[in-house]
Amino acid sequence: MPPESGTVYPVGLRLLDRLVVVVGGGRVAHRRVAGLLESRARITVISPEVTPALEALVAPGSVTWLRRRYEAGDLAGAWYVVAATDDPGVNAAVAAEAERDRIFCARADDRAASSVWTPAIGRQGDLVVGVHGGGDPQRAIGVRDAVVAGLTDGSIRDRAARPAPGGSVVLVGGGPGDPGLITVRGRQALAHAEVVVADHLAPQALLASLPPEVEVIDASKLPRGRSMAQERINDLLVQHARAGRRVVRLKGGDPFVFGRGMEEVEACAAAGIPVEVVPGITSAIAVPALAGVPVTHRGLTHEFVVVSGHLPPGHPQSLVDWPALGRLRGTVVVLMGVDTAPAIAAALVEHGRAPDTPVAVVSDGSTATQRTVRTTLAGLPGALAESGVRPPAVWVVGEVVALGDPG
């Protein structure tokens, strides 16, 4: 922008229950409305047609839609206006009415003719980052993304946003193993942690990136091997939180999918410790997907079941109805079931599943050593023995397996 146009004056508009008019119903209008919704403004969209996503906002009342072209006087009572049609003449008329009525207007097709510029906006909780790029939107977006990424991974410390003094616990689902698959909220919790109690299935690379003053406690539970008792883990969470520390319990997958997360929540609640749960991407869905296997597919399966295989069929403590699973036509996903796979496969066949049903076994999902073994229910025991698959592994039973077969 030329220097004589003046520099932009950044300001935050508080638009709660105030009328905002968006003229236009295309992709640009949709993006503007999406941002305005967070301000809880009263949004009116004026356009003969709108995108499906905008139309979906009309029924619940989030947006009012006037199904016609813009007319003079449509801006009456508005606090803010967006002109986002594909007709420069209409946008110019909207901007002229807004200027006459002293309403700030963002004109999507001509920044020089706008009385306000929309910054590149990023959010972290109640923190809002707005960046103006001197008339260059891509420049603003690049800086915005860098700032938000820094706030997320902790390289930019928002110390004022740290929790108030006093201990707390956050249960974070770390996803299937790739550190890039943890949620944004999970990264934020880690960035503020003083103590991290981590499983061996949690993204290990994230532990290496923690500041040296963060205490990391190994709470691994190795299959049929060394493990920290769940009661000890519960005690550690409570102990460190009571000492006033911010504790993150970092787990693989999702805390509430065979992760014993609810036991930890109950232990903290019983001790009066504030506790938050951050869901994670469960390996039951993510690992098959990363191997090219969808757990559902239109016209092929209408259900999928996730089952723990840590106890074989017939074990007195098993809670799984294996005969019912054998009768299912859909997808069965087995977690923690490498050693028990032969017995589970036999039970599924015994109770009705065809011996030639496709099976995919995916080990070390989402990591550099991920590999997939393809076989059938009848051939599963031999395939596992021949390939030497060891935990962690997820195996999938069903016709969906054939969809991801490169052969």
Summarize the structure.
It catalyses: precorrin-2 + NAD(+) = sirohydrochlorin + NADH + 2 H(+). The protein is an alpha/beta fold and 407 residues long.
Structure description:
There is one protein chain. The chain is an alpha/beta fold. It has four domains: 3-118, 3-Layer(aba) Sandwich (Rossmann fold), CATH 3.40.50.720; 119-161; 162-281, Cobalt-precorrin-4 Transmethylase, domain 1, CATH 3.40.1010.10; 285-403, 2-Layer Sandwich (Methyltransferase, Cobalt-precorrin-4 Transmethylase, Domain 2), CATH 3.30.950. It has 13 helices and 17 strands. The chain has helices spanning 27-37, 52-58, 88-100, 137-153, 184-191, 204-208, 230-242, 261-270, 283-290, 322-327, 341-350, 380-387, 400-403; strands at residues 19-23, 42-46, 63-66, 80-83, 104-107, 120-124, 127-131, 168-173, 195-198, 215-218, 246-251, 275-278, 304-308, 331-335, 358-363, 371-376, 393-397. The strands form four sheets. It has a five-stranded parallel β-sheet, with helices on both faces. A five-stranded parallel β-sheet has the order 10-9-11-8-12, with helices on both faces. Strand 1, helix 1 and strand 2 form a beta-alpha-beta unit. The protein is globular and about 80 Å long.
Task: Summarize the SSE layout with pairings.
Elements: E1 19-23, H1 27-37, E2 42-46, H2 52-58, E3 63-66, E4 80-83, H3 88-100, E5 104-107, E6 120-124, E7 127-131, H4 137-153, E8 168-173, H5 184-191, E9 195-198, H6 204-208, E10 215-218, H7 230-242, E11 246-251, H8 261-270, E12 275-278, H9 283-290, E13 304-308, H10 322-327, E14 331-335, H11 341-350, E15 358-363, E16 371-376, H12 380-387, E17 393-397, H13 400-403
Parallel strand pairs: 1-2, 1-4, 2-3, 4-5, 8-11, 8-12, 9-10, 9-11, 13-14
Antiparallel strand pairs: 6-7, 14-17, 15-16, 15-17
